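REQUEST FORM: STRUCTURE PREDICTION
Request ID: SP-0412
Submitted by: Lab K.M.
Chain count: 1
Length (residues): 223
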Amino acid sequence: MKNLLSALKISVPDKIFIKDPETSELGKRIVENSIILINDIGFESFTFKKLGTRICSNESSIYRYFESKHKLLLYLSSWYWAWLEYQLVLETYSITDADEKLAKAVLIVTRMVKEDSNFTHINEVLLYKIIVNESSKSFLTKEVDIENKEGYFEVYKRIIARIGEMISAVNSDYPFALSLASTIIEGGLHQHYLKEHFPSISNYESGKTPTNFFVQLIKSTIK
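STATUS: Completed
RESULT:
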């Protein structure tokens, strides 16, 4: 199983990038160091010039992979959701009880992230911090409808659809499965953000997750 997972390639919509960064060592360095730099200085302060300095490469070499830092953020977000989806599928496929499967799915999408040794050039812990703090900037734009039609958000939408199907499996008469699924996904990120930046309006201490809250929310909502 470990050998199988090590051969796994996380698939990101190919319209997001010009050249797949997974196909070269430079591309992997761009992704690896962009995560570190965005986490350090924030997306607003991040530039390809600063990234080029960090990786000792020309700024122009980064533009051969991504046409803008917006596209790079889209790539990082899509990679994260695809990585989360593979965990969701892997850890729930053998669970036959619908309630147990849904509770497991909520755990997976709301828990603290740990590094995955199968992808050595990506620090998933830092990437998750970027998703919590910055991912909304990938779709809160004037171009979101066009980019949605181009398929940039297909992985994000797919993971919500998976959880929506699990909700419907518990209660097929519940009419808001997708709305509840997207609330869990975005709510989990928001609660982690509040815990980090506005702890006085969150019930979660450092090291705790909102998993129990969302499991309880689902049970009281769809039963």
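NOTES: The longest helix spans residues 69-92.
Reviewed by: T.R.
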